[in-house]
Design goal:
alpha/beta, 6-stranded mixed β-sheet, 5-stranded parallel β-sheet, 19 helices, binds 6-O-phosphono-beta-D-fructofuranose, G6P_Isomerase_C, gluconeogenesis, carbohydrate derivative binding, monosaccharide binding, glucose-6-phosphate isomerase activity
Amino acid sequence: MNETALKPGFLSRSVGPLHINLDRQLYGEGHVQSFQLSEANQSLSAFNQKLFEGGVVNPTENRPASHWALRSTAHTEQTGQSAQLMINGRDELVLVRQVQNHMEAFVEEVRSGRYTTPDGVPYENLLHLGIGGSDLGPRLLNDVFAKLELAEAPALNIQFAANVDFHEMKAALAALNPKTTLVVIASKSFSTRETLHNAQHIFKWLDAAGPQYRAKALVAATCKPSKAVEFGVDPQRVFEFSESVGGRYSLWGPVSIGIRMVHGNAAFNELLKGAALIDQHVRESEASQCIPTLLAMSDLYNLEHGVASLMLSPYDSRLSLLSPYLQQLWMESLGKGVDKNGKVLNKPACPILWGDVGTNGQHAFFQMLHQSRIASSVELIVVVHPNHDEVQSHQVLLSHALAQSEAFSVGRLNAETELNNPEINFRSCPGKRPVQMVFLDSLTPYSLGALLCMWEHRTAALAALQNINPFDQWGVELGKGIAEQLEQSVPPGHAPAENPVTAHLIEHFLYQAGT
Ligand code: F6P
């Protein structure tokens, strides 16, 4: 994007393949200028400095957040800078480089067919097991990469099973052969019930084909290597990452080893470079030019004005898994009720993030955004250069995205007159919905890396601006604990459930099941 080609006076910013426009937001250039001089800006800069220095930014778990280090080799390549990141007496950058080299070598062995099955033939399939941050990122990357026609063709048929709902596993296994399938067990903690349960099932599936298949098939990505080894994974194929990398921030490292195996190291390293560009942008830009900061400020301004919903619609079907991925990043990070000092917040710390690809969403839920009384901000993503030659399709797609942006903002010109007239007020679209647009030059591993990293920094900035911790998720733990107890009560378990409503629901389940 050539910045000089843009007319001055608009609230637009560019970095690398990304361009944003906030002219239809509540947050305006005046706010940007006053933020630049504010204390909030200073505390955000201090937060970013601490993040990149490896300081403790996750106080409830007494940890730094070192996910950005997973792409630091790309940063080093781009800037020539090398650095250290000392955490608990070890240089995390050394670990990152070692594991990255190890991964790249193993990936090449698999892709070239040198790493073979016990029958001496190349692996043809890969099953990725993991949930939450150990699933959503790799799944998104696979979905996008598969649609990009990358220089290196996919080397393996990949399937995913995250849910302990066996229907997902059944469908995945139907497309796999146990004699030619590698199994990646991705789990930061290596103790997540769903993932370990699914892995146990896969052990049986592999063993049924022959006792020789399991040992060579297993690969693990975790920050608890000893647990993976104890579980039966060969230490040579355990790829470690740091405890300081949060699950929902982990797609840059070993958790995505399956994506490297399927789509190649080159594409994956491009993703890291795109992300490293945004790290550099955040480190070096002043607030008024920093895209994640501006978006976070705008998100905060909307929240302060009662807008607690953010509908995200990429006008590119290749990004259909973007919303589920970002929902975890955004809402697990920002769905908090107290700040770092324990003070109860008086408003939501983030808008609910939801949405689907355009134009599909226009024919589903956009109606509510245009006319209902629910206040929502809207973010539309457009890819400038598509990966096809159908100019007219792209023209229609783009015109719809731009039309929606205008319609949300401007509404119907005579909306007020219409509203005052009960005979025709059903037509009235009041407009004034805050809208922003994001343009990507084209969809590539590089631009995807930049987009996802931008969202990480936007999430962290919105947390920092409200003094909340974006790196813990204590709420998730509650349900896990209750489920563990209830496994004894849910059929065929027999221990009575303590909670009367839960006990009643189990009784009803038994009645409906006819037992
Ligand atoms: O959903 C809660 C969570 O703790 C996420 O933060 C995490 O990404 C997911 O579970 C999976 O955890 P793990 O990678 O440790 O299996």
